[in-house]
Write a structure and sequence with these properties.
- With 801 residues, the chain is of the alpha+beta class.
- It is 49% helix and 16% strand.
- The protein is built from 23 helices and 22 strands.
- The two termini are 38 Å apart.
Length: 801
């Protein structure tokens, strides 16, 4: 074996161009596979960093169409906790952004409101201090916080005596009771930035927003050992059906529980994206192996005399196969090492591209398992691309091989043809998949979100200060803020909204109808918005009927409301809803009731591809909100003057999460765009490698048939006719490859379905376009060898043989 390796190294050193091309080709395949696998390992294969993570579940209310957990009401949580036998614990959490003060300039701190047993359910011990107690999970006693390790070190310098100190939030002191360990990760809580502080949820069933029909909480649970998600879902669904009989106004007839493992919930749609990408780089590696196999076949043909001499002096066929497989394994190891180097940069590129959209991608690294995977891929590839050349090259005919004019065997030509056909087929599958994603993304972006995102800036605010505690004070500040923003140069209009469409959050509340209050029937749960009078005009959400809100709709006047078209159609299909009275949330027959004064267009709240759902609006001036999103429409660069205007009005009010509405739409399709970018890149490499394969094969065939072409020319064939022979053979190969690719793509049509929107996995236009692209590229690659064949000098060709 040692002699085989030394012989191989000497041979490869004498063919530096061949060696470099083979190693680089394999490095691309190995590097891409290694980088994608490192992400899959961190995101899909590594267990969550919690105690017994397989028993942790994501839970929510849902209906027959729900496929993954969403939100839950506090009232339902209380009922599920009291009746479940399969869950050891059920805990809820929600986003919480709160301004700090007393530590320098005011700024917003990202956090979570969690129920008291949240960290115990996850199995996370405190680094310092203690967990929340049940007594602190109450509206009157919830001013205590637990700090993340990073916030503790940044704000308090890692002070071990921080427990018991106060942190001033929104002008109120919160007692610090605990510090989380540095290893704690809020994996999957991707509805905000990484939380820095945690406080008790502090809900009470008597509060209006803690009703059974107000769904805005996320729920996790720990099941007892051996309990499956299906069994847990069946139990909670049975409890929910019983709640429907007891509280018919609070639950829909199709209401059920939705349960999934926490790992599955956190990964979300990223799982399909990552497996598609791993499949794509696997196909790319196959093309790379086919190319190297073709190079080795050509090299074996050039070495036929050497192999014949070895056989003549006693080398068996097995000995020749071992020598050639050693060469392929050395190339495989070289390509693997180079691929690992490429993977280091590839992993960092994937982290950058998927930082905000793929959970846990930041943990991807070139650790020992990933390194072993890379070496394994390289070794398997070395065998894969070396077997066919070794078997073909070891078939030595001494009489033919020792003749100067001997040409490659028919078997080798068939093998090379098959490899190129396979390359073209695989390239077709990858490029067609990219085309489908591109068409899908285009159709998704063409959807009307229900508002006009152009020339619109959005930013979040949470009011802080002792003079902004009462409704009248908040309402007065909001009016002053809007007046200030409207006076900014180039600002056309400005508005406020409690939950921004496509902003990464939602608020659903029970819709009670005064005229039907005594009737039986479930309460609808539309998305709820508190908006200023000019919000609809700023977002260009049309008022379909009636009127929008005006500056006269304020505290002390008749409560009014707006509903969306879908709400009107679903709740009042055969009557006029304008003039009806509704309330959103956990109210009762005493009101206050809001009179519907208008119907507005539907907007897409969660994502562009979400079906239209019911929505309802209340005036911010009548129900003042201290936390909201400001939207400003105008021309030119608005961020700096808007920031300055707010700073002049009140420099203590933190402004954060600034983005244009077009940027927010872009974020909602970021995962699809990431898949498109990466798959497009890999498909581009596949196209290049397949074209190189076609060129290499045709150039080889022209070289092997040089004598034949010389005879053709000598007998009177024109240059066009001679070139046509080469082009015809290329057309047959390309046609066979495209035909095989179309068949394979039909068979793999479900492979990419989960990433598509309003596009069939079998799309004739995409297939035809890709086929034309590959055919044109293949024929272009054949042009130079065909031109070379047409220019063969008969005398030189015949003299050579």
């Amino acid at each position: 074996m040692k002699n085989d390796i030394l012989c191989t190294l000497r041979g490869l050193r004498k063919a530096p161009l061949f060696t470099a091309v083979a190693v680089l080709t394999l490095a691309l395949g190995v590097g891409a596979n290694t980088a994608i696998f490192s992400v899959i390992k961190s995101v899909l294969l590594s267990p969550l960093p919690y105690a017994s993570p397989e028993r942790l579940m994501a839970v929510s209310q849902g209906n027959a169409r729900s496929v993954k957990p969403g939100t839950t009401s506090f009232g339902t949580l209380v009922e599920w906790r009291a009746r479940t036998r399969l869950f050891e614990s059920l805990q809820v959490y929600r986003d919480w952004g709160i301004p700090t003060s007393g530590l320098g300039d005011a700024e917003l701190v990202n956090g979570l409101r969690v129920s008291a047993g949240f960290f115990d359910t996850l199995g996370v011990p405190m680094h310092l201090g203690r967990n929340f107690t049940a007594d602190e999970d109450h509206p009157d006693t919830r001013r205590v916080v637990i700090l993340s390790d990073g916030f503790w070190r940044t704000r308090f310098g890692g002070d071990p005596n921080v427990i018991g100190k106060n942190l001033v939030l929104d002008s109120r002191p919160y007692k610090i009771v605990g510090v989380l360990p540095a290893s704690f990760r809020t994996i999957g809580f991707r509805y905000q930035a990484t939380p820095n502080i945690f406080a008790p949820l502090g809900y009470d069933v008597s509060q209006p927003f803690a009703c059974r029909s107000c769904q805005h909480l996320r729920l996790i649970g720990r099941v007892k050992p051996g309990v499956t998600p299906g069994a847990a879902e069946a139990e909670l669904t049975a409890i929910t059906k019983d709640l429907l009989r007891t509280y018919p106004k609070d639950y829909s007839p199709t209401e059920r529980a939705v349960v999934a493992s926490l790992q599955e919930y956190f990964v979300g749609s990223s799982e399909a994206t990552l497996w598609v990408l791993l499949s794509a780089v696997g196909l790319l590696l196959l093309i790379a192996c086919a190319n190297i196999a073709n190079l080795l076949l050509a090299r074996a043909t050039g070495r036929r005399k050497e192999l014949a001499l070895r056989a003549a002096i006693g080398a068996s066929r097995g000995r020749l196969i071992r020598q050639m497989l050693t060469e392929s394994m050395v190339l495989g190891i070289g390509g693997g090492i180079a691929g690992i180097a490429l993977a280091i940069y590839g992993i960092e590129a994937l982290k950058y591209l998927g930082a905000d959209r793929i959970p846990r991608i930041g943990e991807a690294t070139l650790d020992l398992p990933v390194l072993l995977f890379a070496l394994g891929v390289a070794a398997v590839s070395g065998i894969a691309f070396g077997v066919a050349p070794a078997l073909e090259g070891s078939r030595v005919d001494l009489n033919e091989a020792l003749k100067d004019g001997a040409r490659g065997s028919a078997g080798r030509r068939r093998t090379r043809h098959a490899l190129v056909i396979a390359e073209i087929a695989i390239a077709f599958v990858m490029i067609a998949g990219t085309g489908l994603l591109l068409k899908s993304l285009s159709r998704l972006l063409d959807l009307n979100p229900g508002f006009d995102p152009s020339s619109t800036l959005s930013l979040n605010m949470s009011l802080v200060g002792p003079t902004l505690q009462k409704d009248e004070e908040v309402a007065a500040f909001n009016r002053q803020l809007l007046e200030t923003l409207r006076s900014v140069p180039n600002v056309e209009s400005a508005g406020l909204v409690s939950t921004l469409p496509l902003g990464g959050n939602s608020d659903r509340a029970g819709l009670h109808i005064k005229e039907r209050y005594v009737q039986e029937g479930a309460v609808p749960n539309p998305y709820r918005y508190f908006v200023s009078a000019d919000y609809l005009r700023t977002m260009r959400i049309p008022v379909v009927r009636g009127r929008g809100f005006t500056d006269q709709d304020r505290l002390g006047t008749e409560p009014v409301a707006l509903i969306s078209e879908t709400t009107a159609k679903q709740i009042w299909p055969n009557e006029d809803p304008i003039g009806q009275h509704i309330e959103l949330g956990g109210r009762n027959e005493n009101g206050p009731w809001h009179r519907i004064v208008g119907i507005v267009g539907d907007v897409r709240q969660v994502s562009l591809n979400q079906e239209r759902r019911m929505q309802a609006y209340l005036p911010d001036a009548q129900v003042p909100q201290s936390g909201y999103t400001v939207v400003v429409r105008g021309s030119g660069a608005l961020e700096k003057p808007v920031r300055e205007a707010i700073r002049k009005l009140d420099r203590n009010q933190p402004v954060y999460d600034i983005a244009t509405m077009e940027e927010r739409i872009s974020v909602t399709v970021a995962e699809r765009r990431l898949a498109l970018i990466l798959l497009g890149f890999f498909a581009g490499l596949a196209l290049v490698l397949s074209v190189v394969g076609v060129y290499g094969l045709m150039a080889y065939l022209v070289g092997m048939r040089r004598r034949e072409f010389g005879i053709r020319v000598a007998l009177g064939a024109s240059a066009r006719q001679t070139a046509g022979v080469v082009m015809q053979e290329a057309i047959r190969l390309i046609g066979a490859g495209l035909g095989l690719g179309i068949v394979i793509s039909f068979g793999l049509s479900q492979w990419i379905r989960g990433l598509l929107f309003n596009v069939s996995p079998v799309d004739g236009w995409v297939s035809a376009t890709v086929a034309l692209l590959l055919a044109a590229a293949g024929l272009a690659a054949t042009w130079l060898p065909a031109r070379r064949a047409a220019r063969v000098d008969p005398m030189d060709a015949l003299r050579q043989d």
